[in-house]
Amino acid sequence: MAYLLGIDTGGTYTDAVILDEAADAVVATAKSLTTRPDLSLGVGAAMDAVLDTIDPADIAMVSLSTTLATNALVEGQGGRVALILIGFEEAELNRAGLNDALRGDPVVFLAGGHSHAGAALHDMTEDDVAAAIADLPDGLTGFAVAASFATRNPEHEIIARDTLRRATGLPVTCSHELSQALGGPKRALTALLNARLIGMIDGLITACETHMAGRGINARLMVVRGDGALVSADVAREKPIETILSGPAASIAGAAWLTGEHNALVSDIGGTTTDVCLLRDGRPQIDPQGARVGPFRTMVEAVAMRTSGLGGDSEVHVVEGLQAGLRLGPRRLMPIALAATYYPDIVHLALDQALSVDRPAVDGGQIVIPLWPTFPQGLDPRETIVADRLRQGPVRFGEAVTTRMEGPALMRLVGRGLVMLAGVTPSDAAHVLGRVATWDADAAEKALTLFARKRSGNGDRIAPDAQHLAQMIVDQLTAQTVDCLLEAAFAEDHRNWDVDPADLSQHALTKAGLDQHRGVIETTVKLGVPVIGLGASASSYYGAVGGRLNARMILPEHAGVANAIGAVVGQVAMHETGTVTSNGAEHFATLGQSFTDQNNAMAALEAQLKSTATDKAKAAGVEDIRFTISRDIKEATIEGQPMFLEATIKVTAQGRPRIADTV
Questions:
Q1: Rounded CA gap, 245 and 396, in Å?
Q2: pTM
Q3: In angstroms, rounded to a whole number, what is the distance separating the alpha carbons of residues 330 and 313?
């Protein structure tokens, strides 16, 4: 008998599920806390829990989805990388959000690059690259390389890549390896984010492969890409940027499999983010502009998902004003209830000390937790001071940061995934209200009691006690989730509203319609499709969301492991894209060759793309391959006659990987 093993690693939990594909049934499910920095512990615990129900030798395929890459981009985390820009001016950093994405990481400018036709604009050698990187700081984890018009000629990116690998031994991402689209700054942004994610995704895949070997699983490991397709683990290691929205894409497939619904809004709440996507005619929509996560628009093809920094572990903020108000996210904290299960003495002592004084805690009662036993080289002086205070383990925020100048240093350590903050979250509120009892509810009660002492603008406490504050937090999560769903619904509606969807979701008429206002004006607003609520905490929060939206809320069985289910019900899809360019009549270029006939050039490119896609699909285990081929031909009209400018051809080879054999 052959089984499928699906794994999903999120910010809080790692899920595992065993599917019997022949019977179309779930055999076993399990959850384990995601363990950072050693992901192998959480992955291993989740896998072991489901493998105890079957013989591991019967596993025919393992597939992995994850929100780690998505979460890292939303929270601004990842490795420290250097960006090598070839043939670009410094002003280009202000485009596509590139400067914001750098977050102070070093940039090296090199002369070089190519023209639209692929001709070199300036000579560039290995010596030029070696000299340019000589003064880069220590502590880098990788490089991103982007050259002007590298999609027309990648020669200079390849020279830089090979030189960097020989000189440093670090991973190098080239922009032409991720996208064949034009738009240098956006390609550079995509390469930068990819380089920043390599260490994180490689660690996850290694953890999974190691545990598979230890349990005697001799099966192919696949990874869910952001468009929902499956790729090999090797491809995911090289291009981890393609796993952004991997978890959400898997959740869409899981939602369709679990419910049988063909048209619905799917809302998946995790620890860090809420991901909303429209399921239409049984398939998720693909974002034609490239995946957008947080503030970044990439060149990665992915599901048209709206991802916001709202989850069960979102940080709770007090909104300034005369009346007390709350706002959640986008930063993820470790819930105090969870921190107390790991460090009970430290957390309870800190909370008891803060509660012994009848006034708000200056540091909010937050705990600073180092995630690594030692800190890396390359920290600046203030980061080093903060790190020294954490070498013995977690401490209160006020002990880790003693001056205003040290606050940004701590946040840089948080952003690099070296340190995590523990504080009040919706998960703590759910424990106080008795909706869940997974972690330390007593610690959550203390933390919310302390947090409730914060003052609004009129001097009053924001809440009389922990219970009232907990309900305020849950109500705010409901309100922000409703906004997420409304924004997605307006964006996906066929009507041209001529107003930004985010503004529409906040509009007074929309709010009146949700209230079912009845007066001289009567208004009603409701969703025209049901909402499928996914995530471990969906049942705790989404009943009120459905009520507010006047919508049918579907909370399927196994909603908490929908991502892991979706990870093993998808298909392999290998995309290959190429371009034919023209310098004039009877001059067509592609694949490094020249042609005198447009159709011959396109036929040669299509054949090569089809061959490459076929090889990759077969390597991923697909035997029955289906092809989809699209051509985008750009022409201009000159004196009434069409003139060929360029053609982009995309070939997709797809199919289910075979599961009868192990490899």
A1: 34
A2: 0.75
A3: 10
